[in-house]
From TrEMBL:
It is found in: Cell inner membrane. The lineage of its organism: Bacteria, Pseudomonadati, Verrucomicrobiota, Verrucomicrobiia, Verrucomicrobiales. Residues 95-218, 299-420 form the Type II secretion system protein GspF domain. This is Type II secretion system F family protein. One of its GO terms (cellular component) is plasma membrane.
Length: 432
């Protein structure tokens, strides 16, 4: 029977070493788990063998350990729901932060997952950590285990994890991903808080408009018609005609609106149309610069980590491309990869595509000339991170005045039309 040499942490956090007899590596892992040890390293000792006189005894002890561990293992597996489990964004952020901190402290991946699994306050993350650890222990890579454990990690997260595994900088990439996810979470919270007051304004404006169209304008119309020589102003006639038309055919417009939304969603989700839609998003006012800046930050940070950890440039580009969700930008990176593969310099390949800003290319060119490409990539990422924050602050600052102007214009127009109609009615009465 094989003998495995192990180095593990006990329940007190102390390091312990030794050897264990097991039929295979997963069996050795299970035996260490049963003893309350978190393995740091485990390798088969080819030089050591179990003496033939004690083989039956070792086998019996192993079978006893397996039999004793089965009830606890079965009870644990029964407590975990079957299939992938969805997580909230806050849980994904917590998982990423916890794991990156432990990996950065020098703990190996499997013991780090075991530590997360053993903590009581992590709640649903314990089940996800358990599933990932089981997959990793059975030989699956971390990024594939993430996909199987939960759909909440998403393709971008899994692609970045694969890049971290390939470069040996998994803790750094996870830390940056945690920062990115926290930024998104904070942005979402700020957006919700910033939209509360405008939402009340919009609802109030809609309510006032409904009262104007359904009550005040009809009453004013009847008053003007009953007045000698009364004549409705042309804007009031238009509003009345539109109101009557919508009152009769509102269901038709509702059906058309729903059908248009479904058609757009089907068109957008079609694989053949996704590059076109992604290209269109980059050209949208306000939204386009945010998407582009976010791509530059993510791409530059990933490239800096990969190149800084010794990966060849071509392989780093391929992994960074796989972590890019915008298909239009991914197509541009494909062109860059083809040219770099043919021997062209990275900065020259970027220039030939014509899709990247001059500052972006210049900073990469400086890194190539100085031989410190990873540092130039990181500086460029920091610069575009500042640009991204400015774009987001600009959008947040424009939301409130834009809604106020729209609502003031709508309500003010209706009030002006009604007051004009009232004064015209008074003038007609005075003339007669």
């Amino acid at each position: 029977m094989p003998v495995f040499a192990f180095k593990a942490l006990n329940s007190a956090g102390a390091v312990t070493t030794g050897e264990i007899d097991a039929s295979d590596r997963p069996d050795a892992m299970r035996l260490l788990d049963k003893r309350g040890l978190q393995p740091v390293s485990l390798r088969e000792n080819a030089a050591a063998t179990v003496p033939s006189a004690s083989k039956n005894k070792a086998k019996a002890e192993t079978n006893y350990d397996k039999a004793a561990s089965k009830p606890a293992k079965a009870a644990k597996e029964e407590a975990i729901p079957e299939g992938p489990q969805k997580m909230k964004r806050a849980e994904v952020v917590m998982f990423t932060e916890e794991l990156s901190d432990m990996l950065g402290a020098g703990l190996q991946l499997e013991p780090a997952l075991k530590s997360m699994e053993s903590r009581q306050e992590l709640g649903n993350l314990k089940n996800v950590a358990y599933r990932i650890r089981q997959e990793v222990r059975d030989g699956m890579n971390f990024s594939s285990a993430l996909k199987r454990a939960s759909p909440s990690f998403g393709p971008l997260y899994c692609s970045l994890a694969a890049a971290g595994e390939a470069s040996g900088a998994l803790d750094t990439i996870l830390k940056r991903q945690a920062h990115y996810l926290k930024t998104l979470q904070e942005l979402q919270s700020k957006l919700i808080l910033a939209m509360i007051y405008p939402a009340f304004l919009v609802l109030a404006g809609i309510g006032v408009s409904i009262v104007f169209v359904t009550t005040l304008i009809p009453q004013l119309t009847e008053l003007i018609k009953s007045t000698p020589g009364g004549k409705l102003p042309l804007p009031i006639q238009w509003m009345t005609a539109i109101s009557n038309h919508l009152g009769e055919y509102w269901y038709v417009y509702a059906i058309l609106l729903v059908a248009a939304a479904l058609f757009f969603k089907a068109w957008k989700d079609n694989d053949a149309n996704k590059p076109t839609w992604d290209r269109t998003k980059l050209k949208m006012p306000l939204v386009g610069p945010v998407i582009a800046s976010r791509f530059y930050v993510q791409f530059l940070e990933t490239m800096a980590n990969l190149v800084g950890n010794g990966l060849p440039l071509l392989r780093a580009l391929e992994l960074s491309r796989d972590a890019t969700q915008n298909l239009s930008l991914r197509g541009e990176l494909d062109r860059v990869i083809d040219q770099v593969g043919d021997g062209r310099a990275f900065s020259r390949a970027l220039i030939r595509t014509g899709a990247f800003p001059a500052l972006f290319v210049d900073m990469i060119s400086v890194g190539e000339q100085t031989g410190k490409l990873d540092l130039s990539l990181r500086r460029a990422a920091e610069r575009y991170d500042k640009e991204l924050n400015k774009d987001l602050q600009r959008i947040m600052a424009l939301i409130m005045p834009t809604i106020l102007i729209i609502m003031a214009g709508l309500i003010g127009t209706m009030a002006y039309l009604m007051i004009t109609a009232i004064f015209q009615t008074i003038s007609n009465i005075g003339a007669h």
